[in-house]
């Protein structure tokens, strides 16, 4: 049995790691509110507040270096030697769908946990019909 090797025609694209994905989402969200470089300490704080998993500074900075090597972000140094990063055009293109997916996930989670109070039917009307129309989110349901 012989094996055939297929020619490599396209360069292999890297997928971001879970930490890199979270950093890209944070940078995209912060960039939408206030464009410009973001200090890595601020990113670390935001990720800690998210509460998913602990983020250690050295891991975050190493991840940022790998993302810079991939061309997703640019690293800058402030005069006080504080490290800051900003998304490149390629990073923004990668982060935009990640941010949209995260926002959709959060919205779906909120909708799933929202409590809706249905209108109370007076006892005198309860015997008239079994089915009642109810309006939820501007749509009528039977």
Automatic annotation (TrEMBL):
It comes from the Bacteria. This is Uncharacterized protein.
